[in-house]
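Page 47, continued from p. 46.
Same chain as before, 129 aa.
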Amino acid sequence: MTNPNKDMLITLGVSDVVKSRDFYVGLGFKVDLDGYTADFKVDGIRFSLYQLNKLAEDVNVYNPLEIVKGFTGITLAYNLDSKEAVDEMYAKVQELGGSAEHAPEKAKDWNGYHFYFRDLDGHYWEIAY
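Result:
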């Protein structure tokens, strides 16, 4: 049996790979592979930016998926080392063109400090401490 924990890759469909790559580089992510996709390696997980319409075709070339907008029930998240780092990231997200859902605040259901934002293509991220 294969190991499903070996290499995890999350692919985000984006409208412009170069603009999205620059956004994530601006947030501090390091590009691992760059070409028709942009891949980032983050402590054992990789995430990739791929042209949205091409991703829809890749999922089903015979019947490409409908591209929808709005909340899909999926968020991505990463933790930082301090409240100050969360506040700095909040400012950086907005400076780079991301859209913050709310200012950093104490989490309501757990003992943390966080905010959510949408990237250039509307993917939701949580930044937390």
